[in-house]
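Predict the 3D structure for this chain.
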Amino acid sequence: MQNFLIRVLINAVALWAAAGLIDGISFGDDDAWTSKVVTIVLVALVFGLVNAVIRPIAKVLSFPAVVLTLGLFTFVVNAFMLQITEWIADPLGLAFTIDEFWWDAIFGAVIITLVSWLLSVVLPDGDD
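Done. Predicted structure below.
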């Protein structure tokens, strides 16, 4: 359970960093920081569930493209997971939007990957 909470917080920080660095990714128009924090954590939870359920299937189906591009297609798969998160967040009433797939979602996936990796190295994961 502790590992799951750490992963959700890492995803939340990574999503917040991507939204801060890329104009096309946003968490609603509300200026109240408390509602933004709650939205970011809930979107991080959805993002974690999408990565746990859909990403393994997408990785298997995209394996030939990943091999042909020497792993660079992984960023497209990650961007697709981010786009699916947006599609799921909308009916749930979470104000999470991505303007363009090819620019905003791809660069957002790169930022999320880098921030998640960095925080995973720094923070304990509970497996030790």
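The mean pLDDT is 88.
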